[in-house]
Write a structure and sequence with these properties.
This protein has 99 residues and is an all-alpha fold. 81% of the residues lie in helices and 0% in strands. Helix 1 packs antiparallel against helix 2 (33-59) and helix 2 (33-59) runs antiparallel to helix 3. The longest helix is centred in the first third of the chain and has 29 residues, at 2-30. It is elongated, with a radius of gyration of 16 Å.
Length: 99
């Protein structure tokens, strides 16, 4: 059971990092500042998806402390993505498609 959880966490982390990378590529190609924040947000969410297990199994922290750190990191990532949706960005930062 433990190995299945590790595999699932690694797949989740890999998918999250792939999304973060693609969003960053979109930012670099189109200059859309919100995509930069989406990239950063998904990076933190992906990191948070595995950090609890690492802190609990490897470092030896108690599960509630590892869970609190994990939840804080995921919340930070979600906050950054929320900023990408509601932040005030100039016309250039929207890839030139703003009206």
């Amino acid at each position: 059971m433990h190995q299945a959880l590790i595999v699932a966490k690694l797949i989740t982390m890999g998918l999250g990092f792939l999304i973060a990378y693609q969003a960053y590529r979109g930012y670099r190609v189109h200059g859309a500042t919100p995509l930069k924040f989406v990239s950063i947000g998904f990076f933190f969410i992906s990191l948070g998806s595995v950090i609890e297990g690492l802190l609990f199994d490897v470092v030896g922290w108690e599960i509630y402390m590892a869970g609190a750190i994990q939840t804080s990191i995921v919340a930070l990532g979600m906050s950054v993505i929320l900023y990408s949706l509601y932040g005030e960005f100039g016309e250039r930062s929207l890839g030139g498609n703003a009206k």
